[in-house]
Amino acid sequence: VVLGNLASLARREEDQEGALQLWNEVLELEEDRLSALVQSYQIEQERGNRDAAFEFIRRARTAHPDNVYVLRVYAYELMRNGDIDSALAELNRGLESAPENVDLFAFAGTIAHMSGDRARALQHFARAAELEPDNIAFQYRLAVLYEETGQFGEAESVAKELLTIDNAHAGARLISARNAMRAKDFKRAQE
Predict the structure, then answer these.
(1) What SS3 state is found at 24?
(2) Rounded Cα gap, residues 40 and 20, in angstroms
(3) In terms of C-beta density within 10 A (0-12 exposed, 13-18 middle, 19 or more buried), how is residue 4 classed?
(4) What is the pLDDT of residue 77?
């Protein structure tokens, strides 16, 4: 505990090298200490040492497989390293153990969308929107994905629902206008 407190103090005083050294001493005593692994990851990130940072977050993921924060960071790092399939696989394993975690569904949806897997992204954002129906961001992403996959009726339905939450939402209005244009309903498109 004392070493961890000293490491935290060193970091607050912007002594990254001292903090990292102290966190490494903590890890010598307790190799899977979550705070030491995460702090070391963050310090190495700040120092620009991506490989060393990745190793700390990989160790944290192995030692703490149920920690959602570690899962998200690890998946993000996998994605940054170009391993999107592994990032999605990690997130899917996390979703199996935390099926009500809306943040994991949204994050998995974002990564799937970035990878071009719109069908999977749509599933994840649909679940996120189901878990938090008043979340404007989830509803909008869902409407966009419906539109991108050619499900214009679904996109319109979600956009209308979104407009009941936020009547001034420009994105939802734009989706509705595009759908009206596709239907050649030019009057509705101008509303």
Answers:
(1) helix
(2) 6
(3) middle
(4) 96
Reading the block at residue 2, the tokens are 């004392």
pTM for this model (two decimals): 0.79
pLDDT tens for each residue of the chain, 191 residues long = 688 778 878 777 787 888 888 888 889 899 999 999 999 999 999 999 999 999 999 999 999 998 999 999 999 999 999 999 999 999 999 999 889 999 999 999 999 998 899 999 999 999 999 999 999 999 999 999 999 999 999 999 999 999 999 999 999 999 999 988 988 888 887 77
* Helix, strand counts (H, E) of the chain: 12, 0
Identity of the amino acid at 89:
A
What is the separation, in whole angstroms, between the first and last Cα of the chain? 62
Q: Alpha carbon 56 to chain centroid distance?
A: 19
Q: How far apart are CA 59 and CA 68, in angstroms?
A: 14
- Calculate Rg over the CA atoms of the chain: 22
In this structure, the dihedral spanned by the alpha carbons of residues 82, 136, 122 and 100, taken in order and rounded to 10 degrees, is 90
Nearest in space to 122 (alpha carbons), one of 148, 96, 100: 148
Tokens describing residue 34: 């979550």
Written as one string, the DSSP assignment of 150-174 is T-HHHHHHHHHHHHHH-TT-HHHHH
